[in-house]
């Protein structure tokens, strides 16, 4: 299995990556802090008063670019999320601040209503762009999906694999695929469904290999346990996907 487009979109919208707002009446593009809580409606945390806070209204587009966690890793593309935005006040703003804090407990949430404001986007169009590919995601599917539980720690987990377990990783690839591992074999991407490996950045290009877990993981603790079992115990919990 692989992440669905809706899961990829929710992961990109989670708040780990920088977002950019595009709207009429505002010069250029504005970087914003954002998260998407459990209800699937993104929240923007914006300094207020300020030009952006006074301009945010009506239909806007939030874009988020994936940032590959290691050199040579494939990008997951760009999220385009369009919808109606409105500012939150009073008890609605307090509830939204609490929801925001569940994802990213930044201290500026304590200043909501004074030096900062919260805005909510009701998603109407969701698209994933990757190269020449453009995938439409149903807004209802976007709201219902859950972000990948490994995303926030992906870079750290990949660095540990590549820095300390390169030989075991190559042996795992050869055992599962029945052929030599790529030269300079490195872990490139990791998600709840599996691991992508490929050649080192100084090696000749070679096809990337996806190793799918026997079942999706639900937490960083679980994926750490699964990878440890694969590397050291030879557990048959992975397949060439």
Topology (elements, then pairings):
Layout: H1 5-12, E1 19-22, E2 30-35, E3 43-47, H2 51-55, E4 58-65, E5 78-87, H3 90-103, E6 116-130, E7 133-137, H4 139-144, H5 154-164, H6 166-177, E8 186-191, E9 194-198, E10 209-213, H7 220-233, E11 238-240
Antiparallel strand pairs: 1-2, 1-4, 2-3, 3-6, 4-5, 5-6, 6-7, 8-9, 9-10, 10-11
- Taking the alpha carbons of the first and last residues, their distance comes to 7 Å
In CATH, the architecture of the largest domain is Roll
Strand content: 25-35%
Which strand order spans the largest sheet, edge to edge or round the barrel?
1-2-3-6-5-4
Radius of gyration of CA atoms, rounded to a whole number:
20 Å
Largest sheet: 6 strands, antiparallel, barrel
Identify the overall geometry.
elongated
**Low-pLDDT residue intervals, each spanning 5 or more residues:** none
> What is the chains' assembly state?
single chain
Class computed from helices, strands and strand pairing: alpha+beta
CATH topology of the largest domain, which one? Pnp Oxidase, Chain A
CATH superfamily of the largest domain: Electron Transport, Fmn-binding Protein, Chain A
What number of domains? 2
Mean pLDDT: 91
Tell me the series of helices and strands, N- to C-terminal. Answer: HEEEHEEHEEHHHEEEHE
């Amino acid at each position: 299995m692989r992440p669905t487009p809706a899961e990829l979109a929710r992961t990109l919208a989670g708040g780990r990556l920088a977002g950019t707002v595009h709207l009429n009446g505002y010069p250029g593009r504005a970087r914003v802090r954002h998260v998407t809580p459990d209800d699937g409606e993104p929240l923007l945390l914006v300094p207020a008063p300020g030009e952006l806070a006074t301009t945010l209204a009506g239909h806007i587009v939030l874009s988020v670019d994936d940032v590959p966690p290691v050199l040579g890793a494939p990008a997951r593309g760009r999220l385009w999320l369009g919808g109606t935005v409105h500012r939150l006040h009073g008890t609605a703003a307090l509830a939204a601040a609490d929801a925001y804090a569940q994802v990213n407990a930044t201290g500026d949430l304590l200043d909501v209503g004074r030096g900062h404001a919260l805005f909510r986007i009701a998603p109407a169009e969701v698209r994933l762009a990757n190269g020449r590919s453009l995938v439409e995601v149903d807004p209802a599917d976007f709201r219902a999906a859950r972000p990948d539980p490994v995303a926030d720690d992906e870079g750290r987990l990949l660095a540990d694999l590549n820095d300390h377990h390169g030989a075991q990783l190559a042996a795992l690839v050869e055992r599962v695929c029945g052929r030599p591992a790529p030269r300079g074999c490195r872990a490139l991407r990791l998600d709840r469904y599996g691991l992508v490996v490929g050649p080192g950045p100084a090696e000749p290009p070679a096809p990337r290999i996806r190793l799918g877990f026997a079942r999706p993981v639900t937490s960083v603790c679980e994926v750490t346990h699964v990878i440890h079992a694969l590397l050291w115990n030879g557990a048959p919990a992975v397949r060439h996907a």
